[in-house]
Amino acid sequence: MEELFKRLKIEPKDKNLYKTAFSHSSYVNEHKQKNDYERLEFLGDAVLDLVIADYLYSNHKDTEGEMTKVRASYVCENANFFYATKLELQNYVLLGHGEQKEGIKKAIIADIFEALMGAIYIDLGYATARRVVLSIITPYIKDPNISFFSDYKSSLQEIVQTSQKSVEYEVIKEEGPAHDKTFTVEAKIDGIVYGKGLGPSKKEAEQNAAKETLEKMAMNRE
Asked: Which terminal CB of the chain, N or C, has fewer other CB atoms within 10 Å?
């Protein structure tokens, strides 16, 4: 976890707090640990909301409704999953044996990101938590080329670009009459199939293929 602390540029005072932030209830039950990450997740969610709301209020002239929409796009499960994967938080998650066999679910990875922000807030205070949150999220808010995080294709593209790989989508099947078609699309990274998606249009099938790819990438990283 020291590598993670270096990436976040923090010096923890209570490292046990961070272990709690990464401890799933299944792990806690098996190891008779006192707390899982859920309370820290609750707090971290509030920290994220406040930091991004404050940032938008101070730096944008949007209406309340517009700011709410932007905040909801960058503080949500898809976004938190994206940030967590970029930070490789899935490498630190502590799961029970049953959960390990099933693989780390997307929702758990997203929750861990919130729990980590909650731990930083408790351990190092609001100023440090604010700095960390802004350093992670604002580059995406500022970049007009990055779509909202419901756009799985953009999220996947961002991740693979960091390792200088390429993503392509291929329609492998079309079924049904012209007015009611179902498309099946494969998402490939450097020619290797990672995900498959179905949809009533090529675009929706591509989004679903990208979504499955993101989820598989998260589960396969250990």
From this structure: C
Q: Is 1 inside a domain boundary?
A: no
Q: Which of 88, 113, 146 is at the close of a domain?
A: 146
From the number of C-beta atoms within 10 Å of its C-beta (0-12, 13-18, 19+), residue 145 rates as exposed
- pLDDT tens for residues 18-74? 999 999 988 888 888 889 999 999 999 999 999 999 999 999 888 887 888 788 778
Q: Does 131 lie in the same domain as 24?
A: yes
Q: 3-state SS of the chain: helix, strand, coil percent to 5?
A: 65, 10, 25
Residues 152-169 pLDDT 10s: 777 788 778 767 788 999
Does 222 have pLDDT greater than 60? no
- pTM value? 0.67
Total domains present in the chain? 2
Looking at the annotation, which residues are catalytic?
A: 45, 114
- CATH no. for residue 104? 1.10.1520.10
20-39: string of b/e by CB count within 10 Å (b at 16+)? bbbbbbbbbeeeeeeebbbe
CA distances from 176 to 16, 33, 126, 206 (A): 56, 54, 55, 18
Q: Are residues 43 and 82 in the same domain?
A: yes
